[in-house]
Amino acid sequence: MTRNKLKEAAMRLFGEKGYDGTALSEIAKEAGVKTPAIYAFYENKEDLFMTVFREAMDAYNSYVQELSEGREKLGVRESLYGILNRQYEFYRECPEASKIVLRYMVFPPSFLKDTIEEAFLHSDQSLTKLVGAWMVRGMEEGVIREQKVQPLVDSFLNVMDGLSIQYFYYSSKEVYERKLNHVFETFWNGVRS
Length: 193
What we know:
The chain is built from 8 helices and no strands.
């Protein structure tokens, strides 16, 4: 119970105030414990941060990849659009995890850069595999023109990354959804047979 409260407080505070702007005493206070209690669960501030960051990345990956389960009946176009839409749903439904993932992917604390990059590479490999499978299926079904898979995957992942930034730029649901739909249509028109 205390461990979960600490993680929840840490995720919110690290996401809002940054690593350097968040003191362990603030996390403890928000969790309703004294600062030394943190050390019963975490070695130090870095350990708590990386635990929260990895869990946020894992939550993102699981959420996006849940879409692929049971989607064999849907077409490739609908499934690729579904990945982008699922990412959008994650941002709306898990704002604290979304904020911590995006903030630290773009601006990691310098001394944690390598560790965060390693966690990101795991996420990137999972998404590459998922998106690559849909691209291959699209070519097999003749809805995506025959070409190398990796450039398609890289382009799609860049669309996802761009939409991540766009989500945090705009508070208007209509503006974001318009951008999501336009970028997907442009991408699809560029790759389809």
